[in-house]
Amino acid sequence: MGNFRPESVRSATIRPAALVLLTLLTVLALGLPLWILTLDAPVATGAPAEEPGGEHRGSTPTSQPTGIHADARQRARVAATATAGDPREPQSAPTPVTWGELAQVVRRPAPLPAPTTESQPTTRPATNAADIRAERLRRFGGTAETENAVEAGLAWLAAHQARDGTWDAVTFQRQCPDQDRCGGPAQRRLDDSISPGLTGLCLLAFVGAGYTDQYGPYPQVVTRAVDALLRIQNDRGGFSRTPGMAGYNDSVATFALAEYQVLVRDERLAEPLRKAAANLAATQQALGGWDYLPTPETGRNDTSITAWMVQALSACAAAEIPASRQPLVRSALHFMRAAETDGRVWYADNGEGFRVDPGLRPAFRYGPAMTACGLVCEELLGWERAAPIRERQIGSLLTQLPSTVHYRGRDRTQLHSEYYWYYGTLAMFQAGGERWERWNARLRDTLLPLQDRRKEGSRKLHSFGSWQPYGENWGKWGRMGGRVYTTAICTLTLEIYYRHTPAYLETRELLRAEDWLDFLAPRTIDERRDAVEALSQMRLELGEPVLVALLEDPSPTVALKAAQALAELDSPLGGPVIEKHITVLPPWGRAAAERALSRTREIRRLPPAEGELRLFDAGARLATLRMTRAHVGMQVGVATDSGGPLRMRVVRRFSGRDVVLAEVVGEWNGEAPRVHARAAEILP
Fold first, then answer.
1. Phi and psi of 291, rounded to 5°?
2. Pick from 84, 76, 75: which is nearest to 638 by CA?
3. What is the rounded CA–CA span in Å between residue 557 and residue 562?
4. Ranges of the chain with pLDDT below 50
5. DSSP letter at 522?
6. Is 57 in a helix, a strand, or coil?
7. Measured CA distances, 566 to 551, 618, 630, 644 (Å)
8. 610-681 CATH, one of 2.40.10.170, 2.40.50.1070, 2.60.40.2890, 3.40.50.2300
9. How does strand 635-638 pair with strand 362-364?
């Protein structure tokens, strides 16, 4: 809920187009050639940098990437092998590698390698919801005290739900006894403009504990909340009564209903959730973020709202709601752009939270909560867990652990808040290990004592179980959402131990390579170039196949960036692309290209990679191979009993594992190789 839209009209700012114009005018004023701005314009020699049929910056591409670059295709030709004793020995018939073939395999359901045994639970499987909750609580650092706090928080929320099923930041006190008012109503936004989002946040707290209308002590509370959100939903699929807070209300309400649907699979929610997901997609900004207003035309990308949107769409995917994944792909580009090299993530690029300094430079607002938002969404959207940017972000959060002193006034920005703790806890839980243990210990030590546990004798006060929302010089977001908001988000935070699966145990993929391929086909050069930067930071199974496809991009800039990114992933396929374009690069761009080209040549000089067969699916013509060194497009021979090796091609690697997915290529007599059969790279 953090970072509410202010009441005032946005201040005038220079929009991105104006900043581009300023840059262009600066270049012209200095007398510099325009090709400095991009490889896609004519270079100094006068020769066109684009191939025939290419496009200019900002236009729609005239053709889609269709295959591995021609030179790389020639290098990747594979000959059939003659003997089982040496699967690398070539035959005469070469097999061309085309991206079209690889893409077809990527788009088919493929068996994924199982998690390593170290990641598997060592105790007996839990048999019901209570067992699962108790097991995860023990395993991931929860305690009896955290559970007691969760149950007390839920009891308080249940007692302050309105009869119509909603929660309100101001009128919740109507549920209090006259002589025992809880206090802490919202002091800003005194109308019901955030009630749908607040109702969604409270519903999330009950669902996070595993409680539904079919299980747990609050069936009527959950039923009323679900019914209220369905009743509030409008024809467009949104939930907001007013446009000013639509981004918050629509995202959190959708998130809550989708999480509920994951647990219960209620048929009556299928269509409302489909409409809700479509509404979120329709209101996304062109640059991948979302704003508070329910329109894609504000030009404002708000990281806080975008984080709620990503969680909502992720929950819709988990609930198997049919919806396009392209909004999620586009949101990945937002988080790539919003992250600075030091790991900080800005809040917004226009309006509230953004200004232009006297030197006409953009001045963004940063804070630990936005860094945590970035980490959470990067994990969901497919970033490599050990990516350098993520390591810097995790390191930043570890220097800003939960602290009562900072929360209660020392931080004058009031950005150290329960909102930050919610996202920081999600992010550090996914990081796992000693870093999670450090964060979790401080979280418990900080958050638990702040819960209201007051009694008069043996009688609990009506505020028992809630969290105070604000005080002198603290509680920026609590003043907007009141005691209901603070209690809901603190309860959600303490449910972390069983509400989410740690990243190292998660096998579900939110995005796949085909989602990126579908998204990039009609995009501009700028979008495809930004995509390369994002994909280079993502897990191998997601990023590498798309980068291989982009070697065939009609833009030399995009193809060259993809080739350099592949070299960083120890793939030599981009070598011919670099060789083709390196001579037209300016000096400051040539050094990086030369390093990448040198790396591709080093890889080509390595001895042939070797491994063994793990699994083989004859019907799908797919296999998993154990190979410590491989890359997409690599040709492999697998020994068979009949003497002739089976020729296969690697179509997917997996981050952190020595297992690859490979497809049978060329003619095949139907003989399946044995498990543990020798596999070896076939050199071009």
1. -120, 175
2. 84
3. 9
4. 1-127
5. T
6. coil
7. 10, 30, 12, 32
8. 2.40.10.170
9. unpaired
Residue 162 CB neighbour total at 10 angstroms? 16
What backbone torsions phi and psi does residue 623 show, to the nearest 5 degrees? Answer: -145, 155
Q: Are strands 646-653 and 635-638 parallel, antiparallel or unpaired?
A: antiparallel
Give the residue extent of every domain in the chain: 129-263+285-505, 610-681
Check residue 409 and report its DSSP letter: I
Q: HEC profile for 379-403?
A: HHHCECCCCHHHHHHHHHHHCCCCC
The predicted-structure confidence for 11-70, as pLDDT tens digits, reads as follows: 323 233 333 333 333 333 333 333 323 333 333 333 323 322 333 323 333 333 223 222
pTM of the model: 0.81
Q: Cα dist. 645→77, 358, 627, 641 in Å?
A: 16, 69, 17, 8
Return the ∠ at Cα 534 (arms to 537 and 316), rounded to 5°.
100
pLDDT at 624: 96
In whole angstroms, what is the distance from residue 19 CA to residue 35 CA?
A: 18
Closest of 546, 538, 539 to residue 517, by C-alpha: 546
Q: Determine the residue type at 633.
A: G
Nearest-5° Cα angle at 171, 165 to 177: 95
Q: What is the pLDDT of residue 84?
A: 33
pLDDT at 279: 98
Tell me the fold of 129-263+285-505. Answer: Glycosyltransferase (1.50.10)
The predicted pLDDT at position 667 comes to 87
Can you point out the beta strands (E) in 362-493?
362-364, 455-456, 459-460
**Contact present, 93 and 79 (Cβ < 8 Å):** yes
Cβ burial of 570 (10 Å; 0-12, 13-18, 19+) is: middle
pLDDT of residue 370: 97
Residue 147 neighbours by CB distance under 10 Å: 18
CA torsion through residues 157, 163, 167, 173, sign: negative
